[in-house]
Amino acid sequence: MPKKPSKQPAVNIQRLSEQRLLDAKIVGKSNDRLPYLATIAAAIGVLLGGGILGYLIFSRNPAEPNLTPDQVVPVSSQQPSETGATEQPTSSPAVVEPEVVIQEVEILVTPTGFLNVRSGPGTNFAQIGRASPGESYELVSQDQSRGWLQIRLSPDTTGWVSKQYARIK
Asked: Most buried by CB count within 10 Å: which residue of 23, 26, 105, 126?
């Protein structure tokens, strides 16, 4: 009697050798890029958010130039006496205060009948009030490069108006 061939599963030797050579830890899975891409997207979001926040903060509150005047210290006129000791002046020298000239800004006629007063020298700054034609305000400073004038609205409030619709008296 002939022997019946036993049914053994076919073994694919090439597949087994490839599986042993490729370790799953080395090859990695196809979805391993997702955490990497999420980290990159989060970093970009943080940078953009910080940039936008910084722009909003500094566009509304631009850095003011240092407008402090120079201080002049008078030179002492002490002269040595015959004995070599210095004599003290009998009266203090008079301090001459410079005359402060306050310039005024007159608002001119505008197409809208009023002039917007802004928080900074440009139309991109917030509107903080309105000035009517014919009104005069104290001039605080000028932005020659942009063509804007800073005026005093009240003792503690200043604003900016376009030089196009204002005249310095």
From this structure: 105
Rounded Cα distance between 103 and 84, Å, is 52
Q: What is the rounded CA–CA span in Å between residue 146 and residue 40?
A: 40
* Phi (first) and psi of residue 56, to 5 degrees: -65, -40
Distance between CA atoms of residues 94 and 138, nearest Å: 30
Compute the radius of gyration of the chain from its Cα atoms.
40
In whole numbers, what is the pLDDT of the chain averaged over residues? 78
Reported as a single tens digit per residue, the pLDDT across 4-27 is 666 666 666 666 556 565 555 555
Domain ranges of the chain: 13-60, 104-168
What Å distances lie between residue 135 and 29, 81, 104, 155, CA to CA? 74, 62, 10, 16
Secondary structure of residue 33 in the 3-state scheme: helix
Contact call for residues 133 and 107 (beta carbons, < 8 A): yes
The pTM of the whole model exceeds 0.70: no
pLDDT beneath 70, residues of the chain? 1-31, 60-73, 75-93
Sign for the pseudo-dihedral over CA of 107, 112, 118, 122: negative
Residue 125 · residue 117 · CB < 8 Å: no
The two tokens of residue 55 are 């722009």
